Amino acid sequence: MIKSRSDIEARYRSLLQKAVRRGHADIVLTTSALLESLSSKEKNWYRTRTAIITFEECWPLGSELIFNRKFHSKVAALIKVTRSAKSRDAAGLGYLASALIEGDTSVLNGTSDDKHVKIIADAIKRPGDFWQWIATRKKSDEQAALAANAMRFKHEGMPRDRAVIQAAAYLAVVENIPSRQPQSSPDQAFPYWVAFDKHTPEGKLVLRDVARDLHIPPPQLEWTCFYFEGAKTNGEIPSKWWDRNCRRHFKKVGLPIEEAHLLWEPAKPQMIEALADYSRSLHKELYRWKLSNLKQVEALKRQVELFIEHFEEVHRDQMELFDEDHLDNS
CA 21 to CA 8: how far, in whole Å? Predict the structure, then answer.
């Protein structure tokens, strides 16, 4: 049973990001409305997390992180990520650099690309110098917008999140920003069990039990579950840095990436079965909450669609609020 508000928050926070990745906009909208209703703390968390998810999951959209004081402006940013093919080069490069800072030299493979990992690792150690360098680079309007938004959030989140934001700014000024690739809504129903990962009490318990029952080292099961299910998307732009980070992590847990499916295929049905009650409960809770708060959800949906539709107009009108918005996290 869920016994605390923090456990409830953990489930819905996890659900939100999984729904963004898999392209389920309706679930993102409903979960966002629910999180807004929980507390002002959740609204503050949502603003920061929206920026981090954008840079992690689709870093080119970092150029469009235009927020005002209204909650729906942050939801609109997440909906854009939800409806786009994911581009994870900033996440991959940032994670590699973070691992290098922590002493994992296996992130370096002896190729010329190592220099980029070292540059971001140096940026983590000397952020002031890095952001000054970003500011002096010649940039197109799109590059300048992304760099400015990255600078706005440079102190947000955990150290690894900040490394991803630095990597996004770096990629933006040293190469062309990939164009956004819209994705249609997925046909299949959302698998609610994927919300229960190692960051939730229920997921942590089930991962431990299944690893024990199948005699699998827990780190291998955790990472394989994330790779095949937690990180699954509705479409991806090829991301060499994300691929390199995944290969590095498989090596770290002692499992060749080519053999990972042999571990996951028998483990997946056990995970689904063990999480079935939690999954049904989460689905019912969200559905019942939506029915009880339908006007609130529909109003948020209309506000989000209008915000996205008039984005260019909003962009011009809200630029002067950047500094004010940074102080007002509502």
Answer: 20
Q: Which two tokens mark 268?
A: 């997946």
pTM as predicted:
0.91
Other CB atoms within 10 Å distance of the CB of residue 296: 16
Return the SS3 of 91: helix
In contact, 251 and 106? CB cutoff 8 Å: yes
Residue 131 has which token pair? 């952001």
Instruction: Note whether 96 and 244 are within 8 A (CB).
Output: yes
CB 56 within 8 A of CB 13: no
Question: How far is Cα 38 from Cα 18, in angstroms, rounded to an integer?
Answer: 20
Q: What number of other Cβ atoms are within 10 A of residue 136's Cβ?
A: 9
Cβ(75)–Cβ(32) below 8 Å: yes
Query: Per-residue confidence of the chain (330 residues) as pLDDT tens digits?
Result: 445 567 678 899 999 999 999 999 999 999 999 999 987 777 889 999 999 999 999 999 999 998 888 999 999 999 999 999 999 999 999 999 999 999 999 999 999 999 999 999 999 999 999 999 999 999 999 999 999 999 999 999 999 999 999 999 999 999 989 998 999 889 899 999 999 999 999 999 999 999 999 999 999 999 999 999 999 999 999 999 999 999 999 999 999 999 999 999 999 999 999 999 999 999 999 999 999 999 999 999 999 999 999 876 655 554 444 434 443 443
- Residue 276 identity (one-letter amino acid): A
Give the DSSP letter string of 69-110: SSHHHHHHHHHHHHTB-BB-HHHHHHHHHHHHHTT-GGG--S
List the structure tokens of 47. 């603003």
Question: Which pair of structure tokens corresponds to residue 272?
Answer: 């689904």
Q: In this structure, are residues 94 and 114 in contact, taking their beta carbons and an 8 Å threshold?
A: no
